[in-house]
Amino acid sequence: MIEVEVKAKIKSFKEIEQKLKQIGAVKTKKEFQEDIYFNSPVVDFAKTDEALRIRTTKEDEKINIFITYKGPKIDKKSKTRKEIEMGITNSQQCSDIFEAIGFKKVRTVRKNRQYYAYKNFEISLDDIEGLDPYMEIEIALEDGQDYSDAQNKIFKLFEHIGITDGFERTSYLELLENL
Fold it and tell me: What is the pTM of this model?
């Protein structure tokens, strides 16, 4: 899968929630996410622009755990990149395996995320521990699909709700590491 994602720093969740409601976006869920990031013993993911994480999500009493690999960004405007994700049942055992084969824990990123659906966009409002509020808009594509049209649609949606600056290509992990 190719994930076409653009994020921007926002001033107020309340203001954006009102704008999303005005355009007909529907709030689909709210969850807590904890992402444990690892670095490879072979290559430095910070230099290759890759990511490997274990994500644990909690929505009410429902808990899900995933391993996610994100490949290097493939353009200069957004965070478009290949993503591979797999569900698992035990984050600690997975973490132990990663560390046993030489991967190193880098950092844990925690956030509360509200999801919205609008047309074929997934929109999230992110309250990240240690950072200002952010909004992400993404579209998932199949491998090989042209991402430039999806990218343009995302930027037009941002503009439609009044966001024309504050865009950020770096990950939350990178933002926290650079504080």
Answer: 0.90
Residue 117 above 90 pLDDT?
yes
Domain of residue 93: give its range: 2-177
Whether residue 144 is predicted with pLDDT greater than 80 in this model: the reply is no
Cα–Cα dist 4/120, whole Å: 12
Number of domains into which the chain is organized: 1
162's CB contacts (< 8 A; 6+ apart) are 19
Tell me how far apart the alpha carbons of residues 45 and 73 are, in angstroms, rounded to a whole number. Answer: 12
Catalytic residues: 37
Q: Give me 40's structure tokens.
A: 């490879």
Determine the average pLDDT of the residues in 86-93: 96
Q: Report the CATH number at residue 161.
A: 2.40.320.10
Instruction: Convert the pLDDT of each residue in 38-48 to its tens digit.
Output: 999 999 999 99
Q: What secondary structure does DSSP assign to 35-85, as a single string? A: EEEEE-SSS-HHHHT-EEEEEEEEETTEEEEEEEEE----SSSS--EEEEE
* Closest to 154 (Cα-Cα) out of 43, 48, 79, 67: 79
